[in-house]
Design goal:
Layout (H helix, E strand, L loop, with lengths): L5 H10 L18 E2 L4 H8 L1 H9 L3 E2 L3 H10 L2 H4 L2 H13 L10 H7 L3 H8 L16 H16 L6 E5 L5 H10 L2 E6 L2 H10 L5 E5 L14 E5 L10 H10 L10 E9 L8 H6 L9 H8 L4 E7 L2 H17 L9 H19 L3 E9 L12
Parallel strand pairs: 3-4, 3-6, 4-5, 6-7
Antiparallel strand pairs: 1-2, 7-9, 8-9
Helix pairs in contact: 2-3, 2-6, 3-16, 4-16, 8-15, 9-10, 15-16
């Protein structure tokens, strides 16, 4: 007997030109899934993305072109049509609780960024940079990442001797790049112990200090900074903390910072304001995360900074993610057994879903340049 939820899910899939089990005339397309578990339809209808992702991890369905399938479903709004009870609960919980408070701030470091430097070395390429590359004149991942780091430095007008703060420094590549190429000294903070240990070793011999520290612990007593950047960390701040985040950044500028100081925020953003993240992402990839909207960022900036430049190159993230997928697929067999088949399927679903969201232009990548009081004479933005 057909599953009672089957027709509802099939109608949504057919609207996206996705035909499970070869149901299209003329044979299946690469993005047509093969349903292997009869409970698939019920899991998806009652649990939304969580059911879709978990059933993929469990081997309940398979497909040759995973990101091709997901981009088609996102393109017709299937993710909004089937959300599940957990999504409603997460949104309600976020309304009444600060899921990104100081007590929770290290959880994402422990559960995601501390998975293992071996995994990230295999995926991220020559530079351990876990954020969107800049592909304007690049043909490979390493060149795109170097171009992104240089773009950040040029937008900030870095010069020798400047004191630079990196909020969410990752594995230290951005500070190392800025110190070697532009002669700055700097401080980086991260909530990941694995990242901090790696960054200290990477930056040994350079005038760089790496701290295992929540951003809220920063203050003017740290010596004052001429420039600040934050690359791929704002996605973990949460809407209840946006005002605090920008207050922290503003108070960290030196009183005599050139041009009054410049702050570059590099973040993924969504087209709509939300209070929580996708339930599958929250459970398996980024706990307590949420993607800001332009409205939410603008509201938090108001009265704190002047917006000097807002640059969107979100389409570049699809290409970056494809390069990460190519890298990790080449290296799975060389990684330890703890990255088992279920983990690999989880990681594939994460990367493919992210590709699909950027390809459908539902997600963006913004670099926003801010100044405390406006750059005297105006700011000219490099590209």
């Amino acid at each position: 007997m057909p599953h009672p939820f089957r027709h509802r899910i099939l109608d949504l899939m057919h609207a996206a030109d996705v035909w499970p089990d070869g149901g299209r005339a003329g044979g299946p397309a690469p993005w047509d899934p093969r349903i292997l578990d009869p409970h698939f339809y019920g899991r998806v209808l009652t649990q939304g993305s969580l059911g879709l992702g978990e059933s993929y991890m469990d081997g309940g369905w398979d497909v040759d072109d995973l990101d091709g399938m997901l981009v088609r479903l996102i393109g017709v709004g299937a993710d909004d049509e089937v959300r599940g009870l957990l999504a409603a609960w997460d949104a309600l919980r976020a309304r009444f609780a600060n899921l990104q408070n100081e007590a929770r701030s290290f959880e994402v470091g422990e559960r995601h960024y501390d998975l293992g430097n071996d995994l990230y070395r295999a995926m991220l390429g020559q530079r351990m940079v876990y954020s969107c590359g800049y592909w304007r004149e690049a043909n490979d991942l390493d060149t795109a990442q170097a171009a992104k780091l240089d773009l950040v430095c040029r937008k900030l007008g870095l010069r020798p001797g400047m004191h630079v703060l990196d909020i969410g420094c990752g594995w230290g590549e951005a500070l190392k790049f800025a110190a070697e190429r532009y002669g700055v000294r700097g401080v980086g903070v991260t909530v990941s112990r694995e990242q901090a240990d790696y960054a200290r070793e990477l930056c040994a011999g350079l005038p760089i200090e790496i701290r295992l520290q929540d951003y809220r612990e920063l203050d003017a007593g740290d010596g004052g900074f001429d420039r600040i950047f934050s690359i791929g960390m704002f996605e973990h701040v949460g809407m209840r903390n946006y005002a605090t985040y920008f207050d922290v950044a503003r108070r960290c500028f030196a009183a005599d910072a050139p041009d009054g100081g410049l702050f570059l925020l590099h973040t993924i953003g969504g087209n709509r304001s939300v209070a929580s993240t996708d339930p599958w992402i929250a459970r398996y990839i980024f706990p307590n995360s949420m993607l800001p909207s332009a409205k939410q960022i603008g509201t938090a900036i108001e009265g704190r900074f002047v917006i000097e430049d807002w640059h969107n190159f979100g389409a570049d993230y699809d290409r970056t993610l494809q390069a990460w997928r190519d890298n990790i697929e080449r290296h799975w067999d060389a990684l330890p057994p703890r990255y088992d088949e279920r983990f690999r399927r989880m990681w594939r679903f994460y990367l493919a879903g992210s590709m699909a969201s950027f390809r459908a232009r539902h997600l963006q990548l913004w670099q926003i340049v801010l100044s405390p009081d406006g750059v005297p004479g105006g700011y000219i933005a490099p590209r």
